[in-house]
Specification:
elongated; 15 helices
């Protein structure tokens, strides 16, 4: 083989690029998916059409596949949008399906949430879009409550290129998991309200110019003043379409408040800031620092926590910051948390 031939994809590899796998449990009996479903045959390697779009999937069909050792079906990449629309509609049934292991359910919930938030931010004045976002929170909470180690399950999935929609989803899953572990909140209803506030916390950025949001240099006073309006913009938009509890509204409005009173929009300080909101501020900054933004490279978790502890003193409550460091898990480089002093 010539040296450059090692980089030439095989026929099998090229075929795989046109399809992606999905666990059989995703396809719910009694539903009709708007996508063709394929089986993969190894010898010879090829994809075989198994079920055409708009034909019902029955319990018998799914059981027959299971009896034959089939655990995955395949969908053409060109049908990905239609697939996630189906998942969005069936997400609660999918999460409740005992056939689907948690390690397979969590990535589906995460990707569905990201795609939903992308749609919301592209058209935030669509009440239906905002309502869809609210529905995504329930399976996120279910996944966190079912997980024995939500940090490991979640952080392995988190996208490290910054987009507002990925950031909203990251903050949502991290804040729900951190609230469970650090604040002892283990019931679905309060975690859902926390998740909703986190998922929609940057909704108001949809009203801010992309030129300002992605500006690589320092913002002018006028530009920063506009940025500072996004919490109230978001709260105004969300309240038109969904019911917000006081906790969800506080997360949306006050996630940029600082413990020393230097934040915005209300200049709250210390115990004036709700404990969940203080934790949301830590999570929000951590995720922003650990993702690649147009104006800054991504920091490692250690670098981000060091910046937060040393260069952003006064922004965070020490209990929340120290707790979040513990929440992320034992790290040799974070053994000594004296940086937070």
């Amino acid at each position: 083989m010539r040296e450059d031939e090692s980089n030439i994809p095989t026929e099998e590899e090229e075929a795989k690029e046109e399809f992606f796998p999905l666990p059989l449990a995703v396809m719910q009996p009694g539903t009709t998916a708007p996508i063709d479903l394929y089986l993969y045959e190894h010898d010879p390697p090829r994809y075989l059409l198994y079920k055409r779009a708009a034909t019902p999937l029955t319990d018998e069909i799914r059981q027959r596949l299971l009896d034959n050792g089939v655990e995955e079906l395949y969908v053409r990449t060109e049908d990905e949008d239609a697939f996630y629309e189906y998942v969005e509609e069936q997400i609660h049934a999918i999460m409740a399906d005992d056939l689907l292991p948690l390690d397979q359910a969590v990535p589906i919930v995460y990707q569905t949430g990201i795609r939903t938030m992308k749609t919301v931010l592209e058209d935030p004045r669509s009440g239906e879009n905002v309502k869809k976002a609210a529905k995504v929170v329930e399976p996120i909470v279910d996944a966190v409550l079912k997980s024995e180690d939500p940090v490991a399950d979640i952080t392995s999935l988190i996208a490290h290129d910054y987009y507002t929609y990925t950031h909203c989803m990251n903050v949502c899953v991290l804040l729900v998991a951190a609230s469970r572990e650090l604040l002892g909140i283990s019931q679905q209803t309060p975690l859902r309200t926390i998740g909703l506030g986190a998922l929609l916390h940057d909704l108001g950025k949809s009203r801010i110019s992309e030129d300002i949001l992605n500006k690589p240099g320092k913002l002018t006073e006028e530009e920063f003043a506009e940025i500072k309006r996004h919490p109230e913009y978001g709260l105004e938009l969300a309240r038109r379409y969904v019911s917000l509890t006081d906790t969800a509204a506080r997360i949306m409005k006050n996630h940029h408040e600082h413990y020393d009173g230097s934040g915005y929009p209300d200049g709250l300080e210390g115990d004036q800031i709700h404990p969940v909101v203080r934790l949301s501020t830590v999570v929000d900054v951590y995720d922003a620092l650990t993702t690649k933004r147009p104006y800054a490279p991504a920091s490692t978790p250690y670098e981000a926590l060091t910046i937060m502890a040393e260069k952003m003193k006064g922004h965070f409550g020490l209990n929340e910051l120290r707790g979040f460091i513990r929440f992320l898990g034992p790290r040799d480089e974070m053994r000594d948390t004296r940086e937070a002093d």
